[in-house]
Fold this sequence. Notes:
The structure holds two protein chains of two kinds.
Chain A: E1 5-6, H1 8-18, H2 23-42, E2 47-49, E3 53-60, E4 63-66, E5 73-76, E6 79-86, H3 88-98
Antiparallel strand pairs in A: 2-3, 3-6, 4-5
Helix pairs in contact in A: 1-2
Chain B: H1 3-13, H2 19-38, E1 42-45, E2 49-56, E3 59-62, E4 69-72, E5 75-82, H3 84-90
Antiparallel strand pairs in B: 1-2, 2-5, 3-4
Helix pairs in contact in B: 1-2
Amino acid sequence: MGHKTITRADLAEAVYQSVGLSRTDSAELVERVLELISHALVEGENVKLSSFGSFQVRSKNERIGRNPKTGEEVPILPRRVLVFKPSNVLKSKINKSMVGAGK
Amino acid sequence: MIKSELVQKLADENPHLFQRDVENIVTAILDAVGDGLANGDRVELRGFGAFSVKNRPARVGRNPRTGEKVDVSEKYVPQFKAGKEIRERLNN
Lengths: 103, 92
């Protein structure tokens, strides 16, 4: 498990293999897809990609945290966090290939 | 935003491409991430975030209503950690 790390270059390669575009254009499209998703999230929109999963922006209230080293109390400011909820399709795809595969 | 809206935005930016191809491009990207995870690979997209797969070992669970023991088999769950850049953009 975890033999490899997939990066943008691998996604660009997948685009290159799927449509007859140059590698440069393929890499640019990967970049645009990530930016369009990021932009929507920054605008506070949720992004739902069917059979993959959804990205949701959650707002967190301020709370009191503690510096674990010094025990000092520090306020954790209200902030927005990004969460990913995998679709059932993605979850079962991963389980089918991983469970029992001895990985 | 749903997948078809993402496809539409990308198609608007790329008038030289067929809508069908744009759809295949988005699908190819998502499949590449999903296939990687299904292989147990980590998917790291700088600035955006990283996907990984975590193992949840088999355990004995309990039906909270009846207290009855139930075997829960081993499973693998995908995880996502947002990247630094997007975390900063969300809070500015």
